Amino acid sequence: MMAESKNLTAISSATSEGLIYKLRSWPFSLKMGIMVIGLVALAGIFAPLLTPYNPIVQDYGSVLLPPSAQHPCGTDNLGRDLFARVLFGARIDLQIGLITTYVPLLYGLALGAIAGYIGGWFDTLLMRLVDVAIAFPFLVLIIVILAILGPGIQNMYIAVFAVAWTMYARLARADMLVIREQEYMLAARALGYGPLRIVFRHALPNLLAPSLVFSMSDIVLNILLASSLSFLGMGVQPPAPEWGAIVADGRDFLLQAWWITTLPGIAIVITGLGFSLIGDGLSRLLGQRYIQTV
Amino acid sequence: MRLLGYIIRRLIQMIPVLIGITLMAFLFVKLLPGDPILILTGGKASPETVAALRAKFGLDQPLYIQYLLFLRNAAQGDLGTSILQRDPVVDIVIERIAPSAFLIAYGSLIAILLTIPFSIISAMRADQPVDHSIRIGGMVTFAMPSFWLGLLLMLLFGLKLKLFPISGWGEGFLGHLKYLFMPSLVIGVYLAPMLIQSLRSSLLEIMQAEYIEAARAKGLSPLRVMLKHVLRNALIPTVTILAVNIGWLIGGSVVIETVFSIPGLGLLLVRSVNYRDYPTIQGLTLVFGVLVMLVNLIADLSYAIIDPRVVYE
User: Fold this and answer.
1) Least Cα separation, residue B248 to chain A (angstroms)
2) Which residue in chain A has the smallest CA separation from B293?
3) pTM of the predicted model, to two decimals?
4) Selected residues 14-33 of chain B with any CB under 8 Å from a CB in chain A
5) What ipTM, to 2 d.p.?
6) B143–A128 CB contact, under 8 Å
7) Are residues B251 and A137, on separate chains, in Cβ contact within 8 Å?
8) Of B114, B274, B273, which is closest to residue B187 (Cα–Cα)?
9) Residue segments in chain A with a per-residue pLDDT below the cut of 70
10) Residues B167 and B260 sit within 8 Å (Cβ to Cβ)
11) Using one digit for the tens of pLDDT, what is the confidence trace for B222-250?
12) CA-CA distance, A179 to B142, in Å (whole number)?
């Protein structure tokens, strides 16, 4: 309880003075992380300028070529340039990571906040749903939903949207139970504001920090999840150059062509490290504990 | 007496979750596109046969009766027949629990063995370069896709150096230890950063306690204080983190089992999804849910027994 109220003051002081003004005092890890993710994003956006090759067109004249001046990362079993595939993969993996994290964050946060504020049957129902969702291993639940819907990126989004909000709902609800009793909430109620206005205008800004910090490790987990699903053949479908799918492509050529499997994995690690650094920096900036967990 | 009350309350709390899990597994098959009887008969049977089959499987009953029938069958150990193997789902699932459990236990052990030295160094040198390096190292391994790390280990130690076998789970206990070393290492490396974070912060917290100061004042060396006094008290919360994340561990093992062809629950799940073996998927949904629930229960109860200060709320 003590820690929570301390966090709240830390956040309010950080926002009132304006985060941008304090750019120079930002933690080193935050700046590093933003730089890494910026570079990955730029690599994805400017991929067509950075490589002359098309990531999907096959070329049977240059199959399984090792890295060289012409193909800096070699080619795969269908003669596609691996550097081009990894670059274009940044578009897919970043997009998946952001969408699968921030869409569920929005309604998870809202649902959790409302449940914590009004309580009653809505709260009970929501928490029972959360309990059941947590009772299953996350990946298993997603795989089972995909077994019903069929593989593919669209269905992967649906499956993640159906499950991933529960973490944020739990976080927001727990914090709401604490801040509901704070004086400014009482003041808002005394002024006669409706519950919707109180939840969204007064409480939600203060619930945001823990979820925002958690969302950084969640992005890493979601990129890993999407690449795992694609690796298993249930997520992004070929020939799209999703990083996990490229690793799977290289699986049968481990000895002949190590580069197909190795390089996209390095891209995932760099991206994940970038988001983890941002999370670490944000937690220092906002006075939150950074937890790398599910 | 209070402990007994806690156990009973904890068991009662499990009931809604259990209903949720069974409802999920039941609805899973109901949500599938297509009529199961038409699929079973290939659409060639006469309307009378179809109606008879429908009655036999209880499909002419209202939905809630069908759910109760499903519960009754599940309680009697009847989860249907696998389409792929033509064997009862229960038998197939049970014979695959052991490899998965071995893998998860082995992986957790490796994770703990990695966690203890790294978190002690981190806590004793808090906010110094060593501590930061360990933290960044943890971020790197946290971001590694398990299937990728698995394939790299397989390439290096399996195919190039030929130190470890690359698939299956071997014969006998020593065989399991050898065959499952690489996949368990992946799980351990994957899990360790999380445990290091938790153990480091509880070590730091306990290092502030007065009885630690007393131990130091006695003139014990810092390392001795750490190992004998701090570590023992800090370890319990870390071990419970393991149990809390068991669902995540099981999820991770699905991918690892596929990479290393370990005949566990995860490989069975992936194969059943690929071959649309719906009865097996349904059975696995139930088993995964119940397993996670039981592990959490055991963790909560053992925590309450180990640490009498736990408030039984």
Assistant:
1) 5
2) A135
3) 0.88
4) 16-17, 20-21, 23-24, 28, 31-32
5) 0.87
6) no
7) yes
8) B114
9) 1-22, 289-294
10) yes
11) 888 888 888 888 877 777 777 777 777 88
12) 32
